[in-house]
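#struct-help
A.M.: can someone run this one for me? Single chain, 152 residues.
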Amino acid sequence: MQQPPNLQPPPQIMQMNVTSSGPGCLVRGLWFILIGWWVGFLWLNLGYLFILVIIGIPLGLVMLNRLPQVLTLRPASQQVTMSTQPGISTVQIAQTPQYNMFLRTLYFLLVGWWAGYVWAVVGYLLCAAIVTLPLGLVMLNRLPMVITLRRN
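D.P.: on it. Structure tokens below:
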């Protein structure tokens, strides 16, 4: 007697490649060494200058949140979500979710404006020595989180 054929559908295989559109590590390193460190310092201070002028707060916050891109050409991170239902697979690519705007504004007014500048100065001082350069870059890349709780 013959066995009935296996009636289960073949397993679905999905291959997904998510790539970053930013420049490579070598280009980012050269950018920081040749241009990013001094342009980033000017960008940081100009952003804080806009914040001091009350009408310039929105532009100043945008500038401070973009500081990692100016310093090291770091691309904005993305959140990739994949969901699978019978017969359908969905992939969504979106920006990283942020905290509530009211919470971020309150944090900036109470803590972020001064703590961010102290954080940035310490980060720049750490970048001055080759041994502490990686820690300084990590601090400067996390600066938007310290200033406005912006997630990267």
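A.M.: thanks! The longest helix spans residues 25-52.
D.P.: also worth noting: Helices lie at 25-52, 57-65, 67-72, 101-127, 133-141, 143-148.
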